[in-house]
């Protein structure tokens, strides 16, 4: 399913964006720790959501492992 692939890619991009935002806030001299905390909280939530999406998609047969190395 192409919609699942798109959703996975968008979620991964959002996770990377959130990490970048947190890194930017950390590296600034006058960085805002509340913004950094919020960005890292979003990253954790997105990562858990992606994990659950992958589990559901695998169980429902929407994604199929291709068996590399077998």
What does this structure look like?
This protein is an all-alpha fold. The protein has two helices and no strands. Helix 1 (2-27) packs antiparallel against helix 2 (33-60). The longest helix is centred in the middle third of the chain and has 28 residues, at 33-60.
Q: Count of DSSP E strands?
A: 0
Cα Rg: 16 Å
Span between termini: 24 Å
Any idea what the shape is? elongated
Structural class: mainly alpha
**DSSP helix fraction:** over 70%
N-to-C order of helices and strands: HH
Number of helices: 2
Amount of beta strand = under 5%
The chain-level mean pLDDT equals 91
Main sheet attributes: strand count, strand direction, barrel closure:
none
Which consecutive residue ranges, at least 5 long each, have pLDDT under 50? Answer: none
């Amino acid at each position: 399913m192409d919609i699942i692939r798109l959703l996975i890619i968008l979620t991964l991009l959002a996770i990377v964006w959130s990490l970048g935002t947190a890194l930017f806030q950390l590296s600034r001299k006058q960085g805002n720790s509340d913004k950094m905390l919020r960005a890292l909280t979003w990253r954790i939530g997105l990562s858990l959501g992606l994990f659950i999406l992958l589990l559901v998609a695998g169980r429902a047969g929407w994604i199929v492992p291709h068996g590399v190395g077998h």
